[in-house]
Write a structure and sequence with these properties.
The chain has 722 residues and is α+β, with helices and mostly antiparallel strands. It has 19 helices and 22 strands. A hairpin with a 5-residue loop joins strand 3 and strand 4. The C terminus is likely disordered. It is found in: Apical cell membrane; Cell membrane; Membrane. InterPro entries: MFS_trans_sf, POT_fam, PTR2_symporter_CS. One of its GO terms (biological process) is oligopeptide transport.
Length: 722
């Protein structure tokens, strides 16, 4: 039952939808802004590895799309859509605030060294925040779109259809801005004791936008058409289905006449209108069974694709793109493609007399998503070809550096090679057991390195002979596309080196500094000796490289001091450009336009009037199951190569796409309003009434005879109402 309000209209559209669209824009900004940096927050702040970060990420997304069931129950049976949206938005905003607080490293940094002393507290706050967000965002999901549809009258079907496109545009506009802005906020430096990436700000701005979303939605309260809750419809539907199954199983004997549909076995207890509505819902829900596989691929944009972008080159010339900002390609393309598809592609298809039904659109969308993962696999193969080979658990690697001011001849028992003065070997040699190191035909030295390590062996002069010093190197690409830089001090005195606000500290002679992550761009290094004499030199860096800078004994402070500093490359910079991801984003976004936009409208159009939130929750449930599929497939497959996992997901979606196409072929579209009107105002003729009465009488007599056979059937007969 709707409260009748004559809403002000603008260009034929109710003004109330303005508040709903703005609310959705702000809410989606909040959600996608937080989610854009979430997997990097897990990896770089909470220090989880790639696999565990991906697991928690998809678990969170799955919870976000499981909670719509709760939201639908609350909206349809207790609070109504309006109050449900308001109350759960408060929970949602609280979750965002908790997430922002959880990312403040200073709250547990008692040592003031930039490292949280109680990581368990940060993890606990993060999990509480994510649970509140999942409950809030999921709870309002089935309500907002359906609430927007409720603002239109029955003769505004065209406007309602356009509303769903506008609604989806608002989702992607919010997503676009947030995925541009929050990575920029994340990249800022903030903190009281030490400056670190500003995750509190990256989470805090989405929290503020969620508060704005709530305020805007409440401001439109007086204009809304509000549907009063009509009872616990979801529980009622479940009871109706359960009774039909139980009744059919109880009366499985051939003595009972067959019924047209198995749900008709609920007629003894439930009215035909409810049964007809349940049939419509089940018909669509059955069609939803293959859909989760699409979302299993789609939502990896925020996990696997984002993590992969950290191994790519994000320099676009005029701007440098952060790995998490690559997610903006999807909403940008959505904003372009939705109008193009709605106003150009679909009309052209219609003029070609092709019956491009909603289910055919969705089938095409699934196929395009599968192609996107084929493209992702091809890009991954290119990336893998450029990545360094790190040692396995039973291997050791070594790189040699000559810090002697003359050429050296070196042998490791397998090969001989030469190193010039202050020169390093560019590649690493791999060993599986200790080896003999011989320098300039001198006495051999037995070298034993720890398994699973990369090492740099620096050759230095020790009196008349040569000695060596071993230092361990990093065994992974530098985090977040930064560059791991260190210095070897071959100078005769202590040197102090800084870059930006980071300090290498005092480096004593013949010693190696720690690695410090220097961001992409020009790094400016400041070097001082004990006397305070300063050397300033700069070096331009790409993404994901690692270098060892050598300060030779011949180093001289002065205007051109940087020219005498040598460098040895440990890990090459990322050479595959992020732009190579654009084709896969284009294919995925094309699939989304055909699949998701169509699916939203299809769910609403095929839903009975009092079960629209229920069917919306069912649609969103497919997203949750899709994210669970990611966890299952990723864990069960245990594929060593990421490209192979992409191909596996693509193959699974193609298979599911074929199954869905077959199911769609046999689907018959319905008009819920007409079916409901038919059952609400039945007008059977005399013959139909007579047949109906005879059928009821015959069934009652047969049931009475069977009731005398067993006591259980007798009890059943008492509960049956003919």
């Amino acid at each position: 039952m709707k409260s009748k309000k004559r809403s002000v209209t603008v260009c034929g559209y109710p003004l109330s939808i303005f508040f709903i669209v703005v609310n959705e824009f702000c809410e989606r900004f909040s959600y996608y802004g937080m989610r854009a940096v979430l997997v990097l927050y897990f990896k770089y702040f909470l220090k989880w590895d790639d696999d565990f970060s991906t697991t928690i990420y998809h678990t969170f997304v799955a919870l976000c799309y499981l909670s719509p069931i709760l939201g639908a129950i609350v909206a349809d049976s207790w609070l109504g859509k309006f109050k449900t949206i308001v109350y759960l938005s408060v929970v949602y905003a609280a979750g965002q605030v908790v997430m922002a607080v959880s990312a403040i490293h200073d709250i547990t940094d008692g040592n003031k060294d930039g490292t949280p002393d109680n990581m368990a507290l940060h993890i606990a706050l993060s999990m509480v925040g994510l649970l509140l967000i999942a409950l809030g965002t999921g709870g309002i999901k089935p309500c907002v779109a359906a609430f927007g549809g409720d603002q239109f009258s029955e003769d505004q079907e065209k406007q309602r259809s356009t509303f769903f496109s506008i609604f989806y545009l608002s989702i992607n506009a919010g997503s676009l801005l947030s995925t541009v802005i929050t990575p920029i906020l994340r990249a800022q430096k903030c903190g009281i004791h030490t400056k670190q990436q500003c995750y509190p700000l990256a989470f805090g701005v989405p929290a503020a936008l969620m508060v704005v979303a709530l305020i805007v939605f409440i401001l439109g309260s007086s204009m809304y058409n509000k549907t009063a809750p009509s009872g616990n419809i979801m529980v009622k539907v479940c009871k109706c289905i359960f009774f039909a199954i139980k009744n059919r199983f109880r009366h499985r004997s051939s003595a009972y006449p067959k019924r047209e549909h198995w749900m008709d076995w609920a007629e003894e207890k439930y009215d035909k209108l409810l049964i007809a509505q349940v049939k419509m819902v089940l018909k669509v829900l059955f069609l939803y069974i293959p859909l989760p596989m699409f979302w299993a691929l789609f939502d990896q944009q925020g996990s696997r694709w984002t993590l992969r972008a950290t191994t790519m080159d994000g320099n676009f010339g005029l701007m440098v793109i952060q790995p998490d900002q690559m997610q903006t390609v999807n909403p940008i393309l959505i904003l372009i493609m939705v109008p193009v598809v709605d106003f150009i592609i679909y009309p052209l298809i219609s003029k070609c007399k092709l019956n491009f039904t909603p289910l055919r659109k969705m089938t095409g969308g699934m196929f395009l998503a599968a192609l996107a993962f084929v493209a992702a696999a091809l890009v991954q193969l290119q990336i893998d070809a450029t990545l360094p080979t790190f040692p396995s658990s039973n291997e050791q690697q070594a790189k040699f550096i000559n810090m002697v001011n003359r050429n050296l001849s070196i042998a490791d028992g397998r090969e001989n090679f030469h190193l010039g003065a202050f020169e390093g070997r560019q590649d690493y040699l791999t060993y599986t057991e200790p080896f003999l190191l011989t320098i300039n035909s001198g006495s051999p030295n037995l070298i034993s390195l720890p398994d699973g390590t990369r090492n740099t062996i620096v050759i230095v002069e020790q009196g008349p002979a040569f000695g060596y010093i071993t230092f361990q190197d990093i065994v992974a690409k530098p985090e977040e596309g930064a560059n791991a830089i260190r210095f070897f001090n071959g100078y005769g005195s202590v040197l102090n080196i800084t870059v930006g606000d980071q300090e290498y500290g005092d480096i004593v002679p013949n010693n190696m500094s720690i690695f410090i992550n220097v961001p992409q761009g020009t790094g400016k290094f400041f070097m001082k000796n004990n006397g305070g004499v300063e050397c300033v030199f700069s070096r331009k860096f790409g993404f994901g490289s690692s270098y060892t800078f050598l300060i030779p004994p011949t180093f001289v402070f002065g205007e051109h001091c940087g020219e005498s500093i040598k460098e040895v490359e440990n890990i090459k910079p990322n050479s595959i450009h992020m732009a190579w991801q654009i084709p896969q984003y284009f294919l995925m976004t094309s699939g989304e336009v055909f699949f998701s936009v169509t699916g939203l409208e299809f769910s609403y159009s095929q839903a009975p009037s009092n079960m629209k939130s229920v069917l919306q929750a069912g649609w969103l449930l497919t997203v949750a199951v899709g994210n669970i599929i990611v966890l299952i497939v990723a864990e069960a497959a245990t594929l060593p190569d990421q490209w192979a996992e992409y191909i596996l997901f693509s193959s699974l979606l193609v298979l599911v796409c074929i199954i869905f196409a077959i199911m769609a072929y046999f689907y018959t579209y319905t008009d819920p309003a007409k079916i409901e009107a038919l059952f609400a105002n039945p007008e059977p003729d005399d013959k139909e009434k007579k047949n109906l009465e005879m059928t009821k009488k015959d069934m009652a007599e047969k049931h009475e005879r069977r009731s005398s056979d067993t006591s259980s059937d007798e009890e059943d007969g008492k509960q049956t109402n003919f």
